[in-house]
Amino acid sequence: MQVLRGVPPHAAQSSVLTIGNFDGVHRGHQALLRLLTDKARALALPAVVLTFEPHPREFFSPADAPARLSNLREKLLLLAAAGVDRVHVCRFDARLAAQSAQAFVDDILLGGLGVRHLFIGDDFRFGARRQGDFAMLVEAGARRGFTVESMHTLDVEGERVSSSAVRAALAEGDMAHAARLLGRPYSIAGRVIHGDKLGRTLGYPTANIQMKHRKPALSGVYAVTVEGLGEHPVRGVASVGVRPTVTDAGRPTLEVHLFDWQQDCYGAHLRVHFLHKQRDQVRYASLDALTAQIVRDADQARAWFAANPNPTATSQG
Q1: From the CB of residue 283, how many other CB atoms can be counted at a distance below 10 Å?
Q2: Whole-prediction pTM value?
Q3: What digits encode the pLDDT tens for the residues 164-184?
């Protein structure tokens, strides 16, 4: 898959296009991407995604913006796996926010991306003050020679699939619900970096995974599996959050204690799959109390895996 920053002034060829943030690439996104790639193959054109960085809500109201389900690298990997041929990552800034809906159609959709057929979600709005909508695109397409198709919201067991619904499930610790909406267990990927080595001194060394965003979509202690260390996933227990017992820095961390793993993994790029929430984060009175809880967390995770020998995300119970 080709990844390009921004949109060129002139398209080299026509495209079948969809537009969106695709945070988490959940089952609704996946259904839309199947329509995109099927249409692109039928027209012998590239399947193209236009996405934005940062998320528009992060630009307009950073303090109130929702937690990201996936960072840009994770999102691109998921789009590639869905069969997308090219992604344009467009910087969302004051200039783009002020662009009129008509200029967006003329300069970006037609001029830069050569749209032949456009898929959009049923709630898509664009342009300054969100003036552009589906009706405007249909009318522009009739005049300028492209077609537009709206993708209705996907329901799973009567619930609208959305990034907000996934965030709500993760906040509640319902990993099975999140996995149903995503079509897979929720995961975070990142590179193993050097930490303060506290876990090693407590007898439970951890892999510290670099997190790109300051606001993770979940927190607490989880039974996890980890990809990236060999042919098969490695089981473990992970903590996500701000480590209230050992620091007041407030920056969230992801630490994974890998079961039956003795090798150094600094620099490795790992994907952590969150299968079962065990508890919320708690501040302990001492490192001794924290150590005792870590022992209980590891034992509880091992017991969960013993009861779930072929694990996927499961509900609390």
Answers
A1: 11
A2: 0.88
A3: 999 999 999 999 999 999 999
